[in-house]
C-alpha cells in the first residue's frame, strides 16, 4: 500500500481510518489482479475466425469434399445425382458449404458406402451425408455435426396386406418385417417392434422394396420421408401403416466427419446457423413430404 495513504489514515479517527485503508486495499487488489481471460480469450475452434475458409482443416485445400452412397436415394437426393443441389441432403450440404465460404463449384462429391461412412479409421471426405443417425455407439468411431433433421420411423406395406389395418405395435407381432442393415430403422425394428419372426435384413432399401413386391415381406421399417417416397414412387399399391412411437431422445441425422476432425465445430456452427435463420425449415418444406402418416401413430 502507498505510504502516503497509510500516514493519512493514521491522522484520522479510527473508524474513518479503517474505511480508507479498506478502500485502498480493494484498489490495490484490483490493480494487481490478472485480467479476465474471457474478455480477450483466444478464438475457439467454433469462432468465426477459426472457421474462416482459409483456416479450415480440409482433405484437399480449397475444396469441400462430401461423401454419400450410390444410389443416392430420393427424397434426400434427386436423380441419383448429389451434384445437382436437388433433394434435401444435397441442398443442405451446399448450404453448409456456402456458410463456410465455398461456391457450388468448390464442392466435390465421392461415393462412400453407408456402413463405411461411420466405420473406424481415416476418411477421404470432409463430411458424409447419407441419412445417418447420430448415436453414441457411432460416436466412438467418428464425429457428428449437430443434427440437421429430426427423424420419425414408420412402417410401410402394400394394400390388402396382413398389417394394412394395424393400429398398434402388437398388431405387427406376427408379421414378416424388414429393414436396411446397419440403420436405425433396423434397430427400431429389432428393439421396439420385436416381431416374432426374424426380421429381414437388406443391403439397400431397394432390395427391401423388391422383397415387399414379391410378398417376401409384409412390411418395411424406414424413416418417414423415405417411406413416403417408396409408397408414392416405388410401389403401385403402397401405403404407410403408421409412425412408430419415439423414445425419450429425438433421433437426428447429422453430418459424419473423421474422428477428432478440427472441421467438426465449424460444420456444426454452419448447421446451427441454417437452423436459426430458417433455411433448414425452408429446405424441409421444399424437398420433404410434410404430411403425416395418415395422422396415425402406432400405439405400444
UniProtKB/TrEMBL annotation:
InterPro entries: Iontro_rcpt_C, Solute-binding_3/MltF_N. Keywords: Signal. Residues 1-33 form the signal peptide. One of its GO terms (cellular component) is membrane. Residues 63-291 form the Solute-binding protein family 3/N-terminal domain. Residues 63-290 form the Ionotropic glutamate receptor C-terminal domain. The keyword Signal applies. It comes from the Bacteria. The keyword Signal applies. GO terms for molecular function: ligand-gated monoatomic ion channel activity. CDD domains: PBP2_peptides_like. PANTHER family: AMINO-ACID-BINDING PROTEIN YXEM-RELATED, MEMBRANE-BOUND LYTIC MUREIN TRANSGLYCOSYLASE F. This is Amino acid ABC transporter substrate-binding protein (PAAT family).
